[in-house]
Every structure is written in structure tokens, then in C-alpha cells.
Write a structure and sequence with these properties.
The complex is a heterodimer.
Chain A (H helix, E strand, L loop, with lengths): L1 H9 L2 H28 L2 E4 L2 E4 L3 H8 L1 H35 L4 H9 L6 H12 L4 H8 L13 H29 L3 H9 L4 H12 L1 H16 L3 H6 L12 H12 L3 H32 L1
Antiparallel strand pairs in A: 1-2
Helix pairs in contact in A: 3-14, 4-8, 4-11, 5-8, 11-14, 13-14
Chain B lengths: L1 H21 L3 E6 L5 H15 L4 E6 L4 H10 L8 E5 H10 L19 H4 L3 E2 L2 E2 L1 E3 L5 E6 H6 L14 H15 L4 E4 L4 H9 L16 H15 L3 E4 L2 H8 L6 E5 L3 H5 L8 E5 L18 E5 L6 H12 L4 H14 L12 H4 L11 H9 L11 H16 L6 H16 L2
Parallel strand pairs in B: 1-2, 1-3, 8-9
Antiparallel strand pairs in B: 3-12, 4-5, 6-12, 7-10, 7-11
The chains are: A mainly alpha, B alpha/beta.
Chain lengths: ~300, ~425
């Protein structure tokens, strides 16, 4: 009995029992792939056969305009979409929190719903709306807002706009929920005091609400940035395999296509994934520094 | 509580083992089109079950990413794969090349390949081994809406059955567009297939015998020139993606399209199309040696995975229904032709009653299957190679840029396609 007690002091069997599944899954689905990727990255893969090429995959990347263009598209989407989305999410959260009194629950649900809707279903609908002779162009044409139909899906510029609209539509509600929670945790006395001092609602928003929500904005910015770096569904389904002519190709989609579609080259795909992971890491670090530093200075 | 857990585990284990025991008598097939190949395979299953009532054949409609799922399964040594899968003819060489030994050699299993159309057997042959059972043909034609032709003051009968040149087709298209406002052809702006039909009809090849890219050929240059002309004269109704292309055709956006026999099912799925369509032979590009008024697009074949635990049964199923001429199997080929427009490439089947029948759905009851079968015999053979897919993407991208004015000449277009191909291939 004594022995067993001593043993259990060091090894809490119930504790291990509880974490065993996650340790197991982590080892199989995280640790093992990461370790084996070190092997893959040095090889040129072709189906079942592969050859050692050292850093050859990185040399290949440096010459691969399709991959470089894909990364550029990721950056374009990120730089334009993340700020727009965070601002919209914040605005909607404030409106739902203060401005709108009726149907608040229904509106909250409606705005959140896109992020839990199946993307395949959504894309089918979007494509119907965005066709050259689709609903959106017809509305714009009959309203005399445009003179000729916009190629939402097959023009290099407008296809990027389409992707940005689609991901903004999908993720704004999701981020809004975080802001709503943040807003509800703010002390109403601060706003009452500001009101007494004669600060307008707009002034309150920019000088009180936004600074107090910086931790949540930071969280949103970091997750959304890494989300846009991993963007794959919309360009694959909505603009069809990164079309038109690779103009909405993203890094993740190109990696997927190299590994499972075009070349079965898992080595090259792994090497490109490394680059994406490193870029995402650097971006997250910069954001934490910029916004996080400001917060600790307060 | 512990006892409960043990019981639960035992139950799970038992349930996991049950299918394994019965799996001996079950064949799983992956394909992707419920109105076409899924339908055909289900009909085949009915025929097989007449003599093998104890075998369950499950046909799975794997429309999303079937090739990615199969390549993941092959990487995992066959885990999660079905017994039989359908592959596009233009994709199979890549799989056979990159995954040697993944498929069962069916020649060794006693299939008589002289009974199949030779151009279908080529891509599935490596040395003395032949891996697939040819399924359908992709014999092509130019599909025209006779009602729009009439509106434009043209008599469809002047074109029916005629071997046309592309220059005649452009004239026809301009006339139809002027009167009806409809572009002649529905066109997928992101897709290579229509260009492939034109290039193949010239007898052109995308690759040289040594496997390197062969885009600087007269056939290819003239084909791209033709496409640019069609585009600039407003004769293409451009859409993005397959479903939108189908939608354009079935919502009267174009006066026709250039595609294969397997569009019969789609066109027939809309009752309003009745009596309107006629199909004429694939037009010819004048001045290219070896060009013919016939081409091919699509077409696929059945393959058995070496990893399948039911290899022998799967092979027996394919062999006895798809590759043996008996009254039952010939009736089967005749049925899927009428039911889905699926024209098999098993030569003994081509005498079935539905092959020669007139079809009232088409303009003046054109015997469409007879016509497609006649054209099929003239199709120039196209060599796909394992690198067809990246070439296909690169060319489609370059042509789209040429249409949009980002590339200004046929030469630049070919150079752009070659550059993208090399980059994606890592050459």
C-alpha cells in the first residue's frame, strides 16, 4: 500500500489517463508529421519514388513564379481584407451592443451564420450571383452603376475583389462575436462619464471603445492573418482552382495542388509549407510587438 | 464501470470486424457522375448479380476530389481505397507512372484487348501490361441549335452531316450572332478541353515522343489563332467552371457548343431542348496536314487496385460484364447507351439496336449515336503522357491571358504556357 501511494505521487494515473488521448493524437497527428516533414523537405517526390535533392526544393521555389505570385496574392488579401473585416466586425458589434434595440438576437445570428455554413453550398450561390449575366451584374446594370458587366469570376482584378468579399462575408460575424463579448465586459461607467463630459458617440468609439478592445483586436488580427495565409477554400471553389489563370492562386492552394493533383510532389509541397509557416510566424510576432507593446505601455 | 468499458470496447471491436468478414463478397466502386458512369456501373452490377446474387456491388458517387483521395490512399499503401475506380483517360498515365504496381494487370487476367477501340487501350498500356477496362468514348461533334439558325435565316439542312471548315463555322456564327445576339459557342474560359478538341482534330500532339513539350507546332499555333478569332468576334459565351457551362447551355445563352457524345444526357435532361439540337462533324482547320473532321474529349476507364482484398472478384466482375460478349452484356451496353448516352468502346457491343436508332429528341430525328460512332473511327490518336495535367493548366491560363489582351501574340502565348509548365514542373 505504501509503495503504491509513493508511486502514485509521481505518476498520477488518473491524470495520465485523462490526457492520454490528446497525447496520443498529438503524437500521431502533430509530432510525427512535423518530424517526418524534415525528411520530406529534402526530397523530390514523385508518387511512390523520391530522390534526395538537399535544398533543391527551396531553389525551385525561388524560380517558381506561380508560387511567388501565390504568396503575393496572400499578402494582397491579408493587407486589404483583415483591416476591413476587423473594422466591420467592431462596428457591427458596437451597433448590436448599443444602437439596435429590436431583433438583436436574430441579427446576431444572421451575421454569425456565414462562418458556420458549408462553403460548398455558399460557393454555388455566390457563383450564381456573380456570373457575367448573374444577379449582381444585372442589378448594377439596371441601376446604371456600371456600363458593362463586371467579370467577378474571370477578370484578374475583380476575381480578387470577389475573394476579399467572400472571406469578409464569411468571417466578419465570427470576429464580431469576440468584440461583442469584449464590449459587454467593458464598464458602462466609463461611457456614462464620457457622456457627461459631452463626448460624442463617434468620439467615444475611437477614444474609449477601440483602445479598451486592443487585446481582442490583437487576437482577431493574429488569427485572421494566419487565416488568410492558409486561405484555400474560396480560391479553389469560388474562383475555381485559383483562376482566372492563377490570379487568385494562394500558397495553400498551390501546395495542395502540387501534392495531390498536378505533380504528387510531397517534398516540394512540404518545403513551400515551411515558407508559409515561417512567414505566418514572423507576421504574428510583428503584430504582437506592435499592438501588444502599446497595451503594456498603458 | 470498468466492466462497462470492456463491454463497449468489445462491442466496437466486434462491429469493426463484422464488415471485414463479409467484405469478401462486396465490391466497392468509385466514380463521379450519377447520371452517367454511376448509372452505368449500377446497371453492370444488376447484370453481374443475375449470376452472382451473393455479391454486393456498392457504387459510390465520389464527385469531390476523387483523384486527391485516391492519391492519398495510394500513398498510404492502399488504405481506404475502393476495389475499382474510374479514371479519366488523360489522368491515368500520371497515376500508372507515379504509382507503379498500384493497379492490377488485366491483360494477365485474360482480357482480350483486341475487342476494344485501340485509342482507348493506348494510355493504359505499359510494356506488356495493360491495366484498365475501357469505358466510354469521347467522340466529339459541333452541337448547333437549329432554332437559332432558322431565326438567322439559315437552313439547318444545308449544314446537317456536312464536314465543315472552321472558316465556314465563323461565318455561320457571325450570322447567328447578328440576328439572335447569341454567341455561337458556350466556352469555359478556365478550361482546356475545347482547345484540345481542336488540336486533336488536326492530329497535333502536345508532347514530343521523348516527353518534352511540343507547343510550337503548326496545329497548335493555328488552333490558338482560331480561338482568338472566335473570341474577338464575340462568338464565345465565356463562363467559369463546369457547372456554369452546363447552366449556360441549358439556359439558352449560346447557339451551340463543341463537345463530346456524353453531353447527350445533359441536353436531354431539359425537355425544352427537344427537336432543337443537331450535331455536325467536328469542324476542320484548313491547311494543317493530317487534320480530320473528328476528335475526342474525355472518356474514362475502370481500374482495379492491387491493394484490394477482393481483387479476383473485382476482376471477374469487370471481365464478365464489361469485356465478354454475351446476350446479357450486349443488352447492358445497349441499355447504358440509351439510358445515359454512354457509348462503350467494347467493339462487339456496337451493333446493338440503340446504336443505329434514330433519336426523336434531336432535329429531324438525327441518329446521333450512329453518327458519333462513325466519327469515332476517324479520331486521330492523342498521346497524353504523365505530364498532361500541368500542360493543360498552363495552356488554359496562357490562352485566357491572350483573350484578355495581357498577351498580344500567339508566340507570346506559347512562351507563357511553356514558362508556367516549366515552373510548375520544377524543370
Amino acid at each position: 500500500m505504501v509503495q503504491r501511494g509513493a508511486y502514485e505521487r509521481y505518476v498520477n494515473r488518473f491524470g495520465w489517463f485523462c490526457v492520454a488521448p490528446s497525447v496520443l493524437f498529438f503524437s500521431v497527428f502533430m509530432a510525427y508529421p512535423i518530424l517526418s516533414s524534415l525528411y520530406y523537405v529534402t526530397r523530390r517526390w514523385k508518387g511512390m519514388s523520391n530522390t534526395f535533392i538537399g535544398l533543391g526544393n527551396f531553389v525551385r521555389m525561388a524560380r517558381d513564379n506561380v508560387f511567388q505570385a501565390a504568396l503575393t496574392h496572400n499578402f494582397i488579401f491579408m493587407i486589404i481584407q483583415v483591416p476591413i473585416m476587423i473594422f466591420l466586425a467592431l462596428l457591427l458589434a458596437v451597433l448590436l451592443n448599443q444602437g439596435i434595440r429590436r431583433f438583436r438576437g436574430a441579427l446576431r445570428l444572421a451575421i454569425f451564420l456565414p462562418s458556420v455554413t458549408s462553403l460548398v453550398v455558399v460557393s454555388v450561390l455566390f457563383r450564381v450571383l456573380l456570373q457575367t449575366n448573374g444577379f449582381l451584374n444585372n442589378v448594377l446594370l439596371s441601376g446604371h452603376l456600371i456600363s458593362s458587366p463586371i467579370g467577378w469570376l474571370n477578370d484578374a482584378f475583380w476575381a480578387k475583389v470577389t475573394i476579399i468579399m467572400a472571406i469578409t462575408w464569411r468571417w466578419t460575424g465570427y470576429n464580431m462575436v469576440f468584440f461583442l463579448v469584449g464590449l459587454q465586459s467593458l464598464d458602462t461607467q466609463i461611457f456614462e462619464a464620457a457622456e457627461v463630459d459631452g463626448a460624442s458617440k463617434v468620439r467615444q468609439f475611437f477614444t474609449i471603445t477601440v483602445p479598451l478592445l486592443v487585446p481582442i483586436i490583437l487576437f482577431s488580427a493574429v488569427t485572421s492573418t494566419s487565416g488568410t495565409m492558409q486561405l484555400i477554400d474560396e480560391p479553389n471553389i469560388l474562383t475555381f482552382q485559383g483562376g482566372p489563370a492563377n490570379e487568385t492562386m494562394t500558397a495553400a492552394l498551390y501546395i495542395y495542388r502540387q501534392a495531390f493533383y498536378v505533380n504528387f510532389d510531397f517534398g516540394y509541397a512540404t518545403a513551400m509549407s515551411y515558407v508559409v509557416v515561417i512567414i505566418s510566424g514572423i507576421l504574428a510576432f510583428i503584430q504582437l510587438r506592435l499592438l501588444g507593446g502599446e497595451r503594456s505601455a498603458k | 464501470m470498468k466492466k462497462g468499458l470492456v463491454t463497449a470496447l468489445a462491442l466496437v471491436l466486434f462491429l469493426a470486424l463484422v464488415p471485414a468478414v463479409f467484405a469478401q463478397q462486396k465490391i466497392t466502386v468509385w466514380c463521379w457522375d450519377p447520371n452517367f458512369n454511376v448509372y452505368a456501373m449500377k446497371q453492370a452490377a444488376i447484370v453481374y448479380n443475375k449470376t452472382h446474387a451473393d455479391v454486393t456491388i456498392e457504387v459510390v458517387d465520389m464527385a469531390q476530389d476523387i483523384e486527391a483521395k485516391i492519391s492519398a490512399g495510394l500513398q498510404a499503401g492502399g488504405a481506404g481505397l475502393p476495389d475499382i475506380a474510374l479514371f479519366q483517360d488523360f489522368r491515368i498515365e500520371q497515376f500508372i507512372h507515379d504509382y507503379p504496381d498500384a493497379f492490377v494487370d488485366l491483360k494477365a487476367a485474360g482480357i482480350d484487348y483486341s475487342k476494344f477501340a485501340a485509342y482507348k487501350v493506348g494510355p493504359m498500356t505499359v510494356g506488356s501490361k495493360i491495366y484498365g477496362i475501357p469505358f466510354d468514348t469521347g467522340s466529339t461533334g459541333l452541337w448547333l441549335r437549329t432554332d437559332y439558325l432558322k431565326t438567322a435565316g439559315l437552313n439547318p439542312d444545308n449544314y446537317a452531316g456536312k464536314n465543315m471548315k472552321w472558316s465556314d463555322v465563323v461565318k455561320l456564327g457571325v450570322a447567328v450572332k447578328a440576328k439572335t445576339g447569341k454567341p455561337l459557342l458556350a466556352y469555359q474560359s478556365d478550361n482546356f478541353d475545347m482547345l484540345r478538341i481542336v488540336v486533336q482534330s488536326t492530329g497535333g500532339q502536345f508532347f514530343k515522343p521523348d516527353g518534352s513539350l511540343n507547343l510550337r507546332s503548326e496545329a497548335f499555333e493555328k488552333s490558338i489563332g482560331l480561338f482568338k478569332e472566335l473570341n474577338d468576334k464575340g462568338l464565345l459565351y465565356s463562363v467559369v467552371g463546369w457547372s456554369d457551362w452546363i447552366n449556360a447551355i441549358n439556359s439558352d445563352q449560346s447557339a451551340g457548343f463543341l463537345n463530346a457524345i456524353w453531353m447527350v444526357g445533359t441536353v436531354k435532361s431539359r425537355p425544352e431542348n427537344a427537336g432543337k439540337y443537331m450535331i455536325v462533324p467536328t469542324p476542320l482547320i484548313e491547311g494543317v496536314k493530317g487534320a480530320s473532321n473528328a476528335s475526342n474529349n474525355g472518356g474514362s476507364s475502370w481500374y482495379v487496385f492491387s491493394s484490394s482484398p477482393n481483387k479476383a472478384l473485382a476482376v471477374d466482375f469487370l471481365k464478365s460484364v464489361w469485356a465478354t460478349a454475351t446476350p446479357d452484356t450486349l443488352a447492358f451496353y445497349n441499355t447504358i447507351l440509351k439510358g445515359a448516352g454512354a457509348m462503350g468502346t467494347f467493339l462487339p457491343s456496337q451493333s446493338g439496336s440503340n446504336y443505329t436508332a434514330r433519336d426523336e429528341f434531336f432535329y429531324k430525328s438525327q441518329p446521333v449515336f450512329k453518327d458519333f460512332a462513325t466519327w469515332m473511327a476517324k479520331v486521330p490518336v492523342l498521346k497524353y503522357t504523365p505530364n498532361y495535367q500541368p500542360m493543360r493548366d498552363a495552356v488554359a491560363h496562357a490562352v485566357l491571358k491572350y483573350f484578355q489582351g495581357k498577351l498580344t501574340s500567339v508566340d507570346d502565348t506559347i512562351a507563357a504556357a511553356e514558362a508556367e509548365y516549366k515552373q510548375v514542373m520544377g524543370q
